[in-house]
């Protein structure tokens, strides 16, 4: 596994690309976004983060000829039975419309007290060496917190302005990039991946 010195990141999500590229920067692996190969987003037809991460990784490996790393992640809100879950990026309909997704989430939870607003960010990373790789490396991270009543902070992306981080007493969108990468679901999953790659 340690022979990977270049890989394609199977995402066109600018926020994810920035976070993953920053976190992989020190590990000696050249990271290319799938846009460098004109790779469109894969159809996310899986019913779980694991299935979708593998689908995306295989798709990018097939079209780039490189090992591929895919991230499937989202927000699971306890009071909503785990929704928006795998539909987090398109919760309000349009893929990646953060403000509409956040507005819909606030509306869904509007009458709930803090004690019932528990939530967690989940991330699955899938790394395939080639499109038919029979044993993708899978790493999972979880980040627990709760949903705020209104947005706070200007950093991050997605649901970060609504996600309260108890360890830091602030919203995810108020954390520095370094703090977020150390605490987040994606940071935890990537740490596992880097340990496996070494």
Structure description:
- The active site is at 72 (proton acceptor).
- Its cofactor is Mg(2+).
- It catalyses: XTP + H2O = XMP + diphosphate + H(+); dITP + H2O = dIMP + diphosphate + H(+); ITP + H2O = IMP + diphosphate + H(+).
- Mg(2+) binds at residues 43, 72.
- There is one protein chain.
- The protein contains five helices and seven strands.
- Helix content is 29%, strand content 23%.
- It has a single domain, classed as Maf protein.
- It has helices spanning 14-24, 49-64, 98-108, 177-183, 185-197; strands at residues 6-9, 30-33, 68-77, 118-128, 137-147, 163-165, 170-171.
- The longest helix is centred in the first third of the chain and has 16 residues, at 49-64.
- Helix 1 (14-24) crosses helix 5 and helix 4 crosses helix 5.
- By secondary structure, it is an alpha/beta fold.
Q: Provide the number of structural domains.
A: 1
Apparent shape = globular
The CATH architecture comes to Alpha-Beta Complex
**Measured distance between first and last alpha carbons:** 8 Å
Give the helices and strands as they follow along the chain.
EHEHEHEEEEHH
Helix content: 25-40%
Q: How much strand?
A: 15-25%
Low-confidence stretches: none
Question: Measured on Cα atoms, how large is the radius of gyration?
Answer: 17 Å
Task: Indicate the mean pLDDT.
Answer: 92
Structural class: alpha/beta
Count of extended strands: 7
- Could you name the CATH class? Alpha Beta
Largest beta sheet: what is the strand line-up? Answer: 2-1-3-4-5-6-7
């Amino acid at each position: 596994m340690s022979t990977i010195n270049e890989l394609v990141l199977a995402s066109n999500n600018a926020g994810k690309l920035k976070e993953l590229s920053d976190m992989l920067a020190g590990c000696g692996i050249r990271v290319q976004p799938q846009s460098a190969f004109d790779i469109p987003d894969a159809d996310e037809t899986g019913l779980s983060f694991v299935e979708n991460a593998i689908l995306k990784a295989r798709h990018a490996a097939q079209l780039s000829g490189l090992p591929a790393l895919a991230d499937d992640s989202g927000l699971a809100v306890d009071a909503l039975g785990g929704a928006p879950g795998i539909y987090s990026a398109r919760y309000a309909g349009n893929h990646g419309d953060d403000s509409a997704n956040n507005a819909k989430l606030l509306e869904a939870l509007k009458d709930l007290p803090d004690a019932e607003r528990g939530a967690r960010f989940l991330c699955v990373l899938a790394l395939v060496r080639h499109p038919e790789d029979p044993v993708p490396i899978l790493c999972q991270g979880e980040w627990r917190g709760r949903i705020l009543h209104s947005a706070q902070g200007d950093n991050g992306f997605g649901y970060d302005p609504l996600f309260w981080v108890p360890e830091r007493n602030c919203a995810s969108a108020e954390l520095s990039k370094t703090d977020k990468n150390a605490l987040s679901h994606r940071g935890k999953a990537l740490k596992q991946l880097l340990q496996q790659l070494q």
